Structures are given as C-alpha cells and as structure tokens.
Amino acid sequence: MFLEDMTYPGGTRVLSWRLVEETSQLVALCREAGIACEDLAELPDKRQREKAAERLLLCRAFGRPVVLCHDEQGAPSVKDETTNISITHTIHMVALAVNDSQVIGIDAEQADRKQVVRVRDKFLNAGDQSFIAPDDLTAHVIAWTAKEAIIKAERNSALDWTDGINLDPFTVPELDFDEIVFTARTATNRYRMVVRPVGGHFLTLAAALKP
Prior knowledge:
The protein is of the alpha+beta class. It has helices at about 25-30, 45-60, 115-120, 120-125, 125-130, 135-155; strands spanning about 1-5, 15-20, 70, 75-80, 85-90, 95-100, 105-110, 165, 180-185, 190-200, 200-210. The strands form three sheets. It has a five-stranded antiparallel sheet with strand order 7-11-10-9-8, covered by helices on one side. It has a four-stranded antiparallel sheet with strand order 1-2-6-5, with helices on one face. The longest helix has 18 residues, at about 45-60.
C-alpha cells in the first residue's frame, strides 16, 4: 500500500510503501505499470515483496519503469540517471529517497524495536550516550536509523558505527511528534537528519550539508 510521497527541505523526495499485500498482488501491480518482474520468481517470498514494492516506488519517482544498479559497496543507482537515490527495507515497509544533487541516505526501523537498547554500546559512542538515556527506546531507534542512513549516504560499509559517526544532541518530545531535526557528523561530512514517524516506523533521512 503506497503511503506517501513527500518533499523535504533541500529537495529530497521520500516515497514509502507499507507491505500489506501478498506477493501476487505486488507482482500484478508491477505488470500493470509495465515493470519487469519475471526475475523476482527466483527470490524468497519476503524479498519478492520488497523488490516489487521497491520497483513500484522507483517507477512512481521517475515517472516510468527504470533499471536499478548497485556499485561494489552495494549502493543503489538508476541506470542512465545521475539522480542520487537511497533505499531502505524493513519489516512491513520499503522507502525510497531521491535527490538530483545532494548526497543522501535513508533508513527505517520499527518504532518499538527493543533490541537496539540491548546493543547500545555497539553503535553509540560516549558523546551519543551522554544525551540518550539507557531506557529511552525512541531515542535509541532514532539514533540507530540515523547512523544507518549516514552509512548509506557515505557509501562506506566499513565506516565505524561508534566513533566514526557523531550525533549532535536531540530531544524526543513527550507527546507524539511530526518530525525531529538534528545534525550529525563524520570525518568528512555534516548531515541534516530528519526523522518522521510513518506507519509504525521511524523513517530517517540523512542529507549532506554544504561545507
């Protein structure tokens, strides 16, 4: 089920899809749109659903079926296009970010994923932990998605999760929120982070700021 197509400050479009359909329904939607999907039959059911939704979002973003490519780091691009893209898959959701000029990365995670609290020492450095309380689940999930999004933007899977990425302090409102905006840094870039609750997930966009 298509959720939304939203344009963020800086011109990044973020499109999201909630995976509520059966595989056959998603494949049928692809065929109706003229999107090639014969190769999906070789994949496990979960991957078929994710890839079909991914292709539907790409078709919507570019106005036509396109061919997705990946570099040696696994970072995605669209064949014969210079537009920057980033894609995330998680339980029940696929999201796509598109920007013509800005370096971007996107990640999504279930808002109630408690596992991230148990591994906080593996992705939060001392600076991050100074403002993220050990029992603040929402802040942990936001920090997790922020670091994942930045790794995708940097196109560097070897980037150190802890000391390689520093989050500037952010506050989680006590009541429901529309978005949280903060900044983060790597050795080479500063990023504007935008976190939005979408369909039971936190959807986090990292967009590189000009020096």
